[in-house]
Amino acid sequence: MTNLLWLQGGACSGNTMSFLNAEEPSACDLVTDFGINVLWHPSLGLELGENLKKLLNALTSGQMPLDIFVFEGTVVNAPNGTGEWNRFAGRPMKDWVTDLAKVAGYTVAIGDCATYGGIPATAPNPSESQGLQFLKRQQGGYLGTSYRSKAGLPVINIPGCPAHPDWITQIVVAVATGRGAELSLDEFQRPKTFFTSFTQTGCTRNMHFAYKVSATEYGQRKGCLFYDLGCRGPMTHSPCNRILWNRQSSKTRAGMPCMGCTEPEFPFFELAPGTVFKTQTLMGVPKDLPSGVDKAGYVKLTAAAKAASPAWAEEDIFVV
Amino acid sequence: MASENGATLKAIADMLADGLETQVEPFPETDKEFAEILLQLRQLDTKDLKAKLVISGFLDHPYGPDRQRCLECMYYLVHRKWCDLPELSVPVEPDWWCRLWRI
Question: At residue B29, does pLDDT exceed 90?
Answer without folding.
Answer: no
